């Protein structure tokens, strides 16, 4: 199911970093994410619910890029 919150995500297994690109265009990196989590996320019916329950506020994170806002 397409998400109204999450545009896409990718995972680097070597560094255990999960990059999440939101529909807003903001990009965040989440650190020390176990490799099974992105697999489970891809299989989840609701990407937004999965993010809220299993990612947000559970891992250290950093804003990588703030989306440019149109005037």
Shape assignment: globular
Amino- and carboxy-terminal Cα gap: 31 Å
Proportion of beta-strand residues: 25-35%
- The tally of helices reads 2
* Largest sheet, spatial ordering of strands: 1-2-3-4
Helix content: 10-25%
Largest sheet: 4 strands, antiparallel
- Report the strand count: 4
Overall radius of gyration: 12 Å
| Mean residue pLDDT | 93
- Structural class per helix/strand content? alpha+beta
Element string (H = helix, E = strand): EEEHHE
Stretches where pLDDT is under 50 for at least 5 consecutive residues are: none
Question: What this model shows, in words?
Answer:
With 71 residues, the protein is α+β, with helices and mostly antiparallel strands. The chain has two helices and four strands, in the order βββααβ. The chain has helices spanning 36-43, 47-54, and strands at residues 6-12, 17-22, 27-30, 61-65. It has a four-stranded antiparallel beta sheet, covered by helices on one side. A hairpin with a 4-residue loop joins strand 1 and strand 2 (17-22). It is globular. It starts with 5 loop residues before the first strand and ends in a 6-residue tail after the last strand. The mean pLDDT is 93.
Q: How do you describe this structure in short?
A:
The protein is α+β, with helices and mostly antiparallel strands and 71 residues long. The chain has helices at 36-43, 47-54; strands at 6-12, 17-22, 27-30, 61-65. Strands 1-2-3-4 form a four-stranded antiparallel β-sheet, covered by helices on one side.
